[in-house]
Amino acid sequence: MQYILALDQGTTSSRSILFDTQGQVQAVAQKEFEQHYPQPGWVEHDANEIWSTQMGTASEAMSRANVEAEDLAAIGITNQRETTVVWDRATGTPIHNAIVWQDRRTSGLCDRLKDRGHLDLIQEKTGLIIDAYFSGTKIKWLLDNVDGARERAENGELAFGTVDSWLVWRMTNGKRHVTDATNASRTLLYNIHEGAWDPELLDILDIPPSMLPDVRDSSEVYGTTQGGPFDEEVPIAGIAGDQQAALFGQMCTTPGLGKNTYGTGAFLLQNTGETAVTSEHNLLTTIAYQIDGTTYYALEGSIFVAGAVVQWLRDELKMIREAAEVERLARTVDDNGGVYFVPAFTGLGAPYWDQYARGTISGLTRGANRGHLARAAIESMAYQVADVIDAMEADSGIETTELGADGGAAANDLLLQFQSDILDIPVVRPKILETTALGAAYLAGLAVGYWDSQSEIQDQWELDQMFTPSMPQNRVETLRTGWSKALDRARAWESPDSSEAAPQAADVSTNATSTAPAGEESPAAS
Ligand SMILES: Nc1ncnc2c1ncn2[C@@H]1O[C@H](COP(=O)(O)OP(=O)(O)O)[C@@H](O)[C@H]1O
Ligand SMILES: O=P(O)(O)OC[C@H](O)CO
């Protein structure tokens, strides 16, 4: 029996999952890896740890199912998007830690790009807004702050990649420097209408084109594995950013269909077919997938902190020992007791886009306890999603009648019930919450003929549970008004120039070779 191996490289963990022809999970292995916070608002990963945990989990999943490389029909890759890796082509060594999508260090540069009037141009070409979230300004930061990087990049010695590119490059032993259109669409450098890296944007951000990977379809054979945990060459045949992969995994392949993934962040995507819809309500236009040279688009609402708020309760406050405990704790109280938690740890994404917002807990009284805090944390995910849905309905003119939910935090019944309550629509959870990995598996399997067509996999979706609304509308209104007041307290908290200083040498972890002196960011591009 043959399998598809999906590599799901997420923000907080690397996961490898083996799927069979029925789309059923045969084995899973997962490993969390270290998050580096060298300064407030900065988030880094060690790209070598990303690689080693990903390959480690691939080996583990295969040995759990007693599967060898020869039993694999193909490998699909899905990944945290935007996170930026720059490495030396000759040695394969990253020149610095990966700068994670959540990192805010380039907020000032983004402000300057806006001041220079680039907002419309960038939105027109890329479907994105100007925000530190995307890869482009992170690449510029690395070139300007790592000693000698710009010169090496101009000499063609350095390669840039999002995490998919990095993994493929390593897995093929440096033979393939590729990405897919969904990942390219998150860089701020890719023209989503023309399907090409954009020279004008590269010029604005001062990025040498020689650093960039080839952009390919989301479902095709990019190359074969060379060693590592695979003792035979296995085709790498699918790549998609994790949110797009989840959209595909839920088979939202018809315009109008959408899903919300509650992972570290929460990401609501709605398929708009072959039309790239320009948002007028602060959503992103992004590539949903590209198959056989045809590009399909989506509208996206990106929420930076969702499940991460639970991780924060676990790791920083030590209030719980594991994420699932948050639900038990929240159920010790009847309601939020007037407490609101705005988890703007890394600013706010859609639909607010405030780089300088920071987290707040408001409405505390003497009676507020750990249960209220846990409840406010869970509810914060749902309020943010509700605000994104309002924006999406305003953009598309289509009323959302049901919400598909997946991702790690969608295991939380209280969250999905509350989500259904405040949206006043059913929320449906599929049996397989690993839709991100499933999407990557589908893309890879379709490329090698493991599955013949999308219609063959369409019927594999199975319902786990449907949550239906049961909260009186006046209560919903009171809660959403409270949330909006709390949001106001969190917004514009940080001052624009405090997020820009370069790291102290000692703070730059593992792979950094060198950095510019503190406080220095090179002049912004013209
Ligand atoms: N039962 C739960 N309730 C709430 N949050 C949860 C629960 N289980 C996991 N999470 C959260 O979900 C996130 C992990 O989901 P996952 O989809 O694996 O994320 P990612 O791919 O971003 O790493 C973590 O932030 C974790 O805190
Ligand atoms: O790692 P996840 O699942 O939270 O996804 C991260 C997103 O891709 C960031 O855009």
TrEMBL record:
EC number annotated for this UniProt entry: 2.7.1.30
Ligand binding (sn-glycerol 3-phosphate): T11, R81, E82, Y133, D242
Region Disordered: start-end pairs: 489-526
A matching Pfam family: FGGY_N
GO molecular function: ATP binding; glycerol kinase activity
Residues annotated for ATP binding in this entry: T11, T12, S13, T264, G307, Q311, G408
Activity modulation: Inhibited by fructose 1,6-bisphosphate (FBP).
Cross-referenced HAMAP family: Glycerol_kin (MF_00186)
Assigned protein family: Belongs to the FGGY kinase family.
Record function comment: Key enzyme in the regulation of glycerol uptake and metabolism. Catalyzes the phosphorylation of glycerol to yield sn-glycerol 3-phosphate.
Protein name: Glycerol kinase
Organism name: Salinibacter ruber (strain DSM 13855 / M31)
